[in-house]
Write a sequence for this structure.
């Protein structure tokens, strides 16, 4: 199924972001079934934001637990133990969610894509390492989707994958394959990536065109952090950059305030 046919089957439902203040910028939340790119400089909280989105669904409470939204974190950069510890520090107990009876959270280790050298071998046969790594990544994601049927997915981060394909004509089909794999889950997906250039004349990254929504996170003057919804297909959004902070309880957006 291609991306056009998947898009035609999307609902108009919104999923809460789990980030105070962000939903008002999004017109009520993330549109269900979309793949959204979270772009940002190092240290802006991309992993925290995507984790708050997962936690909001996986930790929902109700008498019959019927409103739980199974969530999956696909980690491409760090081991699970480090992720669990870092998110615990900002108030998210993913360890309990993973070990609970509901099985509302799953961590998928996809870090092998970073470890495969540019030239690899299958037996004695040399193969392209980056292509082998990407095929392994897609297979891992497909298997995890089939096994756990998540409604919320975060992929953190696709930067290493992008750096392996510096030429735009090579990178575009790789990112498109990844986006279409995530779309096939019919889940709402956030994928994070490093911002490669900054400023008013920054170069638009190919993955921005392929994602159905783009959120930009930056550190501006005097350490003030800024979040901006650049696009969100099917939603009426606030496109102005707004200030946000990272607290002990995670990210909070000041959606009614202006940047100065």
């Amino acid at each position: 199924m291609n991306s056009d046919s998947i898009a035609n089957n999307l609902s108009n439902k919104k999923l809460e972001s789990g980030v105070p203040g962000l939903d008002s910028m999004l017109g009520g939340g993330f549109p269900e079934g979309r793949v959204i790119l979270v772009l940002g400089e190092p240290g802006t909280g991309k992993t925290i934001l995507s984790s708050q989105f997962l936690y909001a669904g996986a930790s929902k409470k109700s008498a019959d637990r019927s409103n739980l939204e199974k969530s999956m974190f696909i980690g491409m950069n760090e081991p699970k133990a480090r992720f669990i510890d870092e998110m615990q520090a900002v108030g998210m107990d993913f360890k309990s969610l993973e070990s609970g009876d509901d099985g509302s959270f799953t961590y998928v280790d996809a870090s092998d894509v970073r470890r495969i050298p540019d030239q690899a071998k299958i037996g004695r046969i040399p193969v392209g390492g980056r292509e082998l790594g990407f095929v392994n990544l897609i297979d891992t994601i497909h298997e995890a989707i089939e096994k756990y049927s998540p409604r919320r997915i975060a992929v953190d981060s696709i930067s290493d994958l992008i750096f392996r394909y510096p030429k735009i004509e090579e990178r575009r089909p790789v990112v498109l394959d990844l986006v279409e794999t995530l779309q096939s889950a019919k889940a709402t997906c956030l994928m994070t990536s490093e911002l490669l250039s900054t400023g008013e004349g920054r170069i638009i990254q190919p993955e921005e065109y392929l994602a159905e929504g783009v959120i930009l996170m930056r550190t501006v003057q005097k350490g003030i952090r800024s979040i901006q919804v650049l696009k969100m297909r099917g939603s009426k959004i606030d496109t102005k950059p707004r200030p946000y902070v990272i607290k002990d309880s995670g990210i909070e957006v000041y959606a009614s305030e202006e940047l100065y």
Remarks:
- Residues 3-9+19-196+203-253 form a domain with the Rossmann fold fold (CATH 3.40.50.300).
